[in-house]
Amino acid sequence: MIPARRLFAALISLALCSAAHAQKPSIWDDREVTLTDEDTVTPVNVAIWDSGTDLTLFRGQVYTDMTSGGLRSDQHDIAYDIKKLPAKGFIPILDAQQTQQYAVARPLLKGFTDLQLGLDTADAAAVKQRLAASDGQAFLEQLRYFSLYAQGTEVASVAARGNPAIRMGAGRIGFDWHNTPAAPTEELARRAAAADHAYVDWYDSNEMRVVSVAWTISPQDYEAALEKNNVGDASERKALAAKLFTLERNGLYEAMKSSSNILFICSAGKPGTKGTLLEAAPANFKLPNVLTVGAVDQAGDEATFTAYGGYKTKLSGPTMATPAVVNLAAKLIALNTALTPEQVIKLIVGGSTPSADGKRHLINPRKSIEMSKAMAATAATGKKKK
Prior knowledge:
Elements: E1 7-10, E2 44-50, E3 77-80, E4 86-87, H1 96-105, H2 109-116, H3 122-131, H4 136-160, E5 166-173, H5 186-205, E6 210-213, H6 219-228, H7 234-258, E7 263-267, E8 290-295, H8 318-335, H9 341-351, E9 353-354, E10 361-362, H10 365-385
Parallel strand pairs: 1-8, 2-5, 2-6, 3-5, 6-7, 7-8
Antiparallel strand pairs: 3-4, 9-10
Helix pairs in contact: 2-3, 4-8, 5-7, 6-7, 8-10, 9-10
């Protein structure tokens, strides 16, 4: 298991997925910190490593690489498609038909997430009803595509909240949204590992201080895709899945290990998944620059889901817990750019409070930032004495 100091709980929104869930007192309002023009802050580069981020929505909070005179098409991002080949653009471009489809699907995305999490809500019931239609499977693919389309931007909206100093770049991943995904192969796994190195090289060369990793990979992901493609029997699929996962996992591990100056904040797992983190990468990486987070509700209690707002597209789970901690890390660095990843983790850990049952550590941005300011004041005093 991941050491306790590496696993934290975080909440993004105070909204519940359904009125069926009783309201609880919120512990989070008093912990929130919003940076303003009165704070002495320095711009901090943060990468949203996800399904694509609509950076046009974040005026004044976007990273731009001007090393080529501002003429490069990838000034703000690095992207790979579902075949793990280089792509362009920080978010997929919807054609006219997809734009119309998105308008229909968007109100149902919350229900789609509820359904994935096994929640019995009115929104989930509406999605079930729609999926029962003759074109239900095709519509399921659309929902999955548009859920991924919205995810990265939702993550960014949480990471950027209350921080005028954040400068976000995008690492766009082409997640496979098809009901029957492409059959996993050794070639694809090796491409994925190579892409992971390219992503991290881009983060490093563009001086990203924090990277949001609100996703995981596991042998079970590979095994499920192999089964959907009718590859081998159960034992053969299990062995092949382990081999392919190890190829991608090792590439990801070496890439993140090589960039010790970057803090990677990772999701503990996907919405609806159960079990330990033993096989979930990069959540289970024991590196000094990796912090893994999970989700709780507005009272700080363990949650199988967390509901989020953003710009009226609601998504859920540990995916959306991750950028809450990214938000705090970016604020800490904006206030003190000298902080190392290890020091940022120490401040987040030190400012957190244990839950009543002692199983979770709940972030407290206000306390962590107070600790950082006190640390800076002590360091300044020491310099004066010298």
